[in-house]
Amino acid sequence: EKMRGGHAGLESDEREALPGMVGRTYLVTLADGRTVGDLESSLGGHITVEGVKRGSKLLTPSPGLELTLSDL
User: Fold this and answer.
1) What is the pTM assigned to this prediction?
2) Does any domain span residue 14?
């Protein structure tokens, strides 16, 4: 029925195929002077830095980018 465009919800025994994505913004304090790569690996690969805002500039977070106090 679902494949024909009928009921589109999940059945009681079904789950979403992928968990929802969670995004958060953090202010750099204790990570001052550490690189993006160091930060990501120190947390076991459970995080990914997708962007860095330094003042009014948006930076591409390469593994070698050094984080500074007050980066977002």
Assistant:
1) 0.67
2) no
